[in-house]
Amino acid sequence: MTTRVAVITTASSARLAHLHRQRRFLREAQSETSTAGIDLLRIEVWLDDAAPQEVGNATVLHLPPGAHGMRVGAARNAAARHAIEAGADLLLFLDVDCLPGPDLLPLSTDAARRRPDDLLAGPVTYLASVQRPNALADLPALTRPHPARPDPAPGALAHAAPTDYALFWSLSFAVTPRVWERIGGFDEAYEGYGAEDTDFAFRARERGVALTWVGGAHAYHQWHPSGTPPWRHLDDILRNGRIFAERWGTWPMEGWLEAFAAAGAIERDGDGWRRAS
């Protein structure tokens, strides 16, 4: 039995080098899983104002930024619609910064066969700046999953408690089309940086979709410069955080908000936050 897996990535010119490496690793992963009953469909959604100049071996969609920045949620929704229309059995979302581990495709596919009604998420390792793997075989030695997320044994499926949905990351996850439609996709009100992935997880919880951690389905986040807290995304975080709080009654990204407040950049505004006056 063949499973058609759509690997969906949102991309931009700022991450072109990361995208090239991801494409190469996916080709290698596809070659290694060619006998595992996986038919790979590659979909990239370009988020820049301009369409990409080169597209590689993928279906490419173009979704320019909105009034408040890149529309990651809307881009994923567009890609999911395309994948479902193309007959995909599984939607696997992989952030442009992430490389697929050797077992990401087969273990995600196996998990979807075992738990077809769940939201499936695997562990993510953040690579250091000096770690530049050249092939799939380089990745296992670099495995060091983020300590704040579950890391089940390879092949094991661990079910999240209701309080654990806030741990969901959209860096690497998979759903069947019927689960995608049950959740309703990403909320397109979120533009720019932050909160859309936690909102997606909370929507899944609200609709009774179980969150399952997939042991061994590793992804590897390629290093890039970033701030802690991410200062260039401050206004996005305030705007998206406010949308999230109005919907769910709590603010996301609390650690970053507290760091911004400690630096004097934001202040409390009732139950929320605003730029310091």
UniProtKB/TrEMBL annotation:
<dbReference type="GO" id="GO:0016757">
    <property type="term" value="F:glycosyltransferase activity"/>
</dbReference>
<comment type="similarity">
    <text>Belongs to the glycosyltransferase 2 family.</text>
</comment>
<feature type="domain" description="Glycosyltransferase 2-like prokaryotic type">
    <location>
        <begin position="72"/>
        <end position="207"/>
    </location>
</feature>
<comment type="pathway">
    <text>Cell wall biogenesis; cell wall polysaccharide biosynthesis.</text>
</comment>
<dbReference type="InterPro" id="IPR029044">
    <property type="entry name" value="Nucleotide-diphossugar_trans"/>
</dbReference>
<protein>
    <submittedName>
        <fullName>Glycosyltransferase</fullName>
    </submittedName>
</protein>
<dbReference type="InterPro" id="IPR019290">
    <property type="entry name" value="GlycosylTrfase-like_prok"/>
</dbReference>
<keyword id="KW-0808">Transferase</keyword>
<keyword id="KW-0328">Glycosyltransferase</keyword>
<dbReference type="Pfam" id="PF10111">
    <property type="entry name" value="Glyco_tranf_2_2"/>
</dbReference>
